[in-house]
Amino acid sequence: MRGLLNQDRTDIPLGAAEDRYKSYIDAIRRIIDQHNRQKIQQETALDLPQVIRLQKRNPREITIYEAATVEALVEPLPPQELALQARETLVLGMAVSVTDVKSLFPEVEGVTSKEKLQSLLDGERSCSLTRYAEIEAAVARQRLA
Asked: Which helix (H) or strand (E) holds 116?
């Protein structure tokens, strides 16, 4: 079974970034629901209040790495590898659609420069799950155009 973070979803018309983000949060919730709160707190990068907020559908922003620590509970890969694969999936989607950072940058809301977008893709900067979904949606729009 492949988790959401290491699946290529850039060729699927899932709609807006909000819909993609929601599907990630729903997948994280399902994993959390399969484990007790104490195990989630001990074995992931999430603290107990965040776990409770996720269960109540009111999460604060989480990073790709935090999401990967939850997904690693049901995947045979460590969180670092899952987060790396998530970024590589976006880059692969860009390559398939012949999209570069320069042409993708205007499509990604909230990213203020091409350099910042490149650093998110390279893993030099922490990437929130919301931002990841925005980049994924932008790549998908380019790829499906």
From this structure: helix 114-122
Write the CA distances from 96 to 51, 56, 77, integer angstroms: 36, 38, 25
Distance CA 5, CA 8 (A): 8
Pairwise CA distance, residues 62 & 123, whole Å: 15
d(CA 112, CA 99): 18
User: Which of 100, 34, 97 is CA-nearest to residue 70?
Assistant: 34
Query: What mean pLDDT comes out for the span 3-13?
Result: 76
CA distances from 24 to 30, 34, 50, 134 (A): 10, 16, 15, 12
The string of pLDDT tens digits covering residues 65-76 is 988 999 999 988
HSE of 55, CA atoms in CB hemisphere, 13 A: 15
Question: Which amino acid, 40?
Answer: I
Burial 25-43 (b: 16+ CB within 10 A, else e): bebbbebbeebeeeebbee
Residue 1, pLDDT score: 37
Q: Which two tokens stand for residue 61?
A: 């922003």
